[in-house]
Amino acid sequence: MCGIVGHIGPKNSIEVVLEGLKRLEYRGYDSAGVSFKKNGKIEVYKKAGKIENLKGILAKIETNANSCIGHTRWATHGEVNDTNSHPHVSENIAIVHNGIIENAHSLKIEMMKNGVKFKSQTDSEVYMALVNREIEQGNDLFSAITESFKKVEGNSAFVILNKNTNEIWALKRAAPLVCGTSKKTGEVLVSSDPYALAGMVDTIYFPGDNVVCKLDQNSENLITFFEMDGTVSQRFKSKPLEISLESTTKGTYPHFMLKEIYEQPGLIRSLAQHYVHGAGREALNASANIIPSHVHIAACGTASYAGLVIKEFFERINRIPVANELASEFRYREPILRKGEIGLFISQSGETADTLAAQELCQENGLKTLAIVNVEGSTLFRNCDANLLIKAGVEIGVASTKAFTQQALTGRLMSAALNGELKDERKIKIIFNKFSLLAERIDELLLRSEEIKAIAQKVFESKGFFFTGRGKYFPIALEGALKLKEIAYVHAEGYAAGELKHGPIALIDNEMVNIALVGPELLDKTISNVQEIKARKGKIVAFGPENNSDIESISDYYFALKFEGLDELSPLYINVANQLFAYWVARFKGTDIDKPRNLAKSVTVE
Ligand code: M6R
């Protein structure tokens, strides 16, 4: 977690870094800080809370610099306060850090015995102390940075500002880091995510692990990469930056989450176009060349629920057995992994630590690994044998919406490729039309957002929410409950409708709401489950098929849906109703929808 940015260039670096940090706030927003040079000294301004707090302080001083580093924090070591905020600064350097130093404690004890004093409780300050010690021992900055980096264990990225020279240094191990340059304007930046660089650079560079990046306005290329031994490194990948400036704003929407919900129909259409008729077809067929005897899916949170939807596709359509597991459990469970099986990893960011560890475990055991991922060039993308991009564009809302839909649908396309559906013109047409129909139905559903808002207004103060669904709607119940919990801060659970009577039904009373996800399949059985809740005075909000008086008549609030023709894609349709419901409940609750408390979008720690 945490977002880091560094800039050197003709523009006011402080403003550039603040803009970058604002875009990285999705990575954490416990505190923010910047450091730059003024009158030959390193200055630091940092503050607990969101970037707005920091901006408030900076507004009171004259701020102009041509180099600056900054940080937005998701706290791991040390509570949320000003002191633990980054940058950490000494006489010679300022540093910002993203990641975890696993041996920080022992290093700290050793240094404290030698008289080193620490101001903060962070692991990051330990790296700074190591660099300082190297400098005090007479080493130059390059060896101080690299020698200290060798001593810290765990996944980390650091950006370092030096008092005496006009350069910024950066290096990383298994943590995201990207550099960018604009030869036209002379700007050079480093960041945790290319998104922070949109509109400022035209070329981006992904350095390899242990490659040292030197950002230097006076060098011809603005940036040079070095190996740890000081030789020039070629271990980086460069490409044009393809993220538009427009994607960095909310446009006319009040929240990124809402904008992202509304983007879904367009994204579904372009996903189908890309994989069925466009350049993605080859990647899809290549992924389908490995016909697995068994698939291990590992992912976290919403991505894991997308995994459950994909499991349903693979098992029902392809008759391939799938184990879907939480990546955080998978790695410690000694899973049985055999040749001929594949590991499938689902992730929006491609940086989720647990998902990366699960991938590594599968690779070590000789399995082919495949990612369904949004961020091209992310660690997961780079580590897997093959990738299917979900083409969701940048997702800023911490609550994942469009990525979920695109992940599940990419899984459906993979199952189509495995099934030979993309080799037969008639079948190609069927699948393409089904995706188009889903997009159309979601378009219609989005036009009825006010109806869902009205339901949310009636129930948002309830004590708790049970999302129930059977069969292919069960993963959607889990996802619906997660969305509501994370953005509206209300207690919600997802249950397989038939399971409720095995315990949770004890919680039902007139203050509890059942969001019943009722598709055309297993209809009667689901209705019976709703009856059971109704009989215990639970409030019923049903998202169910149109023209079904049985379910409508027992519901307190009913939202009718048109399932015909969507078949296996219908869970993704009903899920959009859940997304809007969570959004409106959160609006009525007045929570911070795009940046819910305690969360970060990209969870790069275990
Ligand atoms: O970037 P990833 O898809 O790997 O992230 C996985 C989860 O952290 C993520 O889906 C999380 O559950 C979302 N906040 C849910 O909305």
Examine the coordinates and then state which fold CATH places here, giving the name of the CATH topology of the largest domain.
Glutamine Phosphoribosylpyrophosphate, subunit 1, domain 1
Strand order of the largest sheet: 3-2-4-1-10-9-11-14
Give the strand tally: 24
- Biggest pleated sheet: 8 strands, antiparallel
Distance between the termini: 10 Å
Strand content: 15-25%
SSE-based structural type: alpha/beta
What hetero molecules are in the model? 5-amino-5-deoxy-1-O-phosphono-D-mannitol
Query: What is the level 1 CATH name of the largest domain?
Result: Alpha Beta
**The CATH H-level homologous superfamily of the largest domain:** Aminohydrolase, N-terminal nucleophile (Ntn) domain
What Rg do the Cα atoms give? 25 Å
The number of helical runs is 19
Estimate nothing, just give the exact number of structural domains. 3
Secondary-structure arrangement, i.e. CATH architecture of the largest domain: 4-Layer Sandwich
Q: Which range best describes the helical content: under 10%, 10-25%, 25-40%, 40-55%, 55-70% or over 70%?
A: 25-40%
Q: What kind of oligomer do you see?
A: single chain
Instruction: Detail the poorly predicted runs.
Output: none
